[in-house]
Specification:
single chain; alpha/beta; seven-stranded parallel beta sheet; 19 helices; 2 domains
């Protein structure tokens, strides 16, 4: 364990301030700034019961960033269904987010950076390993992690200039903090160089791509895809997935407008769970569209404007035959759906303004020019007319695929490390 005068002083200060921290939290509860449960979480207490089996601790600054854990959670639960996760976040915010919808994920707010509070948290959850996805510096919390022999991985590792300057008078402070991590995974060479200058342990430092949520391509029956593609022939096609009831009229009007400039245009339609296909068909027919249900007609005919996929064929087939996909639940305040389903299968992405459930994923796609936001039926029509051109759609689709696969190396490395930690802790693997 590295020694730092600054860290020792920081520890003493935190010990002296314990009572003041508790008083401040109590006052915030009284003023309804935070909830009672959050105040308890901040001092390491919780009403949640630790599940049996292995527990992995995941830490992020907020739930938006925490969504980058989604793929790792899926990988680990696929390897061992008995694994659970305790997710801690620093910011006070509503408990929403795609990561919380995953099975076996518990959430509570991060403890204040205090050794005693952190030990209380660790004693309750007894995590088998941890993954840290935050550039916030919690030296006392990590000291407790080290003393409890919990291997912890720092992903997307970096220390900003602002945070570094805060500890200029104590040159060993950040190095001593970084030494608490079992592995430090930098997302670039430049980040690794900065970390080495801050005295990060060289033997624990690795350079990988950024750790972030990616996508696993949805399965597809190749025979079904081939038959559907042959029936579509050379028709221009677009796909609307996870469509909400309130979006049907907007999409129907879009199909009307765009088909005037794109002859024989076909809209493939997948409805959000719980919406009757017959009801959707009637609403679209009221707009003078020729609609067929897959349950009644297995493949669309030339006279059909809309083909509603109401048979459990799998979204993978539909994404693969459509060069452009609109992700539903985003033109109404429902929070949107996962865009990486389309991105991983080479489809250009259009979506509405409501995507809070997958904010981080959409932001990454928008930044890369891999998705386009539309506000209403009119702007969707304009975007769709532009992307009917195969070369334009192909450029967006390729960018979407690159975003969806970025982070795979870092995710795989974290999965490998955690699997190794769990095997080492398994009594069955203990030396005789």
């Amino acid at each position: 364990m590295r020694f730092s005068v600054g860290l020792a002083g920081y520890h003493i200060r935190a010990w002296v301030m314990q009572s003041l921290v508790k008083s401040k939290l109590s006052l915030q509860v009284q003023e309804q700034v935070i909830s009672q449960s959050e105040a308890e979480n901040r001092i390491g207490e919780t009403n949640l019961v630790r599940p049996s089996g292995k527990v992995i601790w995941l830490h992020a600054p907020d739930l938006r960033t925490a969504n980058d854990f989604s793929e790792l959670i899926t990988q680990l639960r696929g390897a061992n269904a008995d694994i659970s996760f305790i997710l801690t976040t620093e910011k006070s915010e509503p408990q929403i987010g795609a990561v919380l919808a995953q099975e076996g994920v518990f959430h509570q707010f991060a403890v204040e950076d205090n050794y005693r509070f952190a030990r209380k948290f660790l004693a309750h959850w007894a995590p088998d390993a941890g993954v840290w996805l935050s550039d916030s510096i919690y030296p006392l919390c990590l000291s407790a992690v080290e003393s409890c022999a919990v291997p912890c991985i720092y992903v997307n590792a970096t220390v900003s200039r602002k945070r570094r300057n805060k500890y200029l008078w104590f040159p060993n402070f950040i190095g001593a903090y970084l030494a608490r991590f079992d592995r430090i995974l930098a997302s670039s060479d430049s980040s690794a160089i900065r970390l080495r200058r801050l005295r990060a342990p060289r033997k624990r430092l690795e350079v990988l791509g950024g750790f972030r949520a990616g996508a696993t391509a949805l399965g597809c029956n190749e025979a079904d895809r081939t038959r559907l593609a042959s029936h579509l022939a050379s028709r221009p096609v677009w796909f609307a997935a996870h469509v909400d009831r309130k979006e049907l009229a907007k999409l129907g009007k879009t199909q009307q407008r765009v088909s005037r400039g794109a002859q024989n245009l076909l809209m493939l339609l997948h409805l959000s769970h719980g919406i009757p296909a017959e009801s959707a068909k009637r609403r679209l027919e009221a707009l003078s569209l020729n609609v067929c249900l897959q349950s009644e007609c297995p493949y669309p005919r030339l006279e059909h404007d809309v083909f509603i996929a109401d048979v459990e064929q799998g979204l993978g087939v539909l994404y693969r035959v459509a060069p452009v996909s609109f992700i539903g639940g985003s033109m109404v305040p429902e929070g949107g759906n996962d865009p990486f389903e389309a991105a991983a299968l080479g489809s250009a992405i259009l979506h509405g303004p409501h995507f809070s459930n997958f904010q981080n994923s959409y932001d990454r796609l928008l930044d890369a020019g891999a998705a386009r936001q539309v506000e209403n039926s009119e702007s969707l029509s304009v975007a769709l007319l532009d992307l009917i051109s195969p070369d334009r759609a192909a450029l967006m689709a390729h960018a979407a695929w690159e975003v969806s696969t970025a982070g795979a190396e870092a995710n795989d490395r974290v999965f490998e490390l955690i699997t190794t930690y769990l095997e080492q802790k398994d009594p069955a693997n203990a030396p005789a």
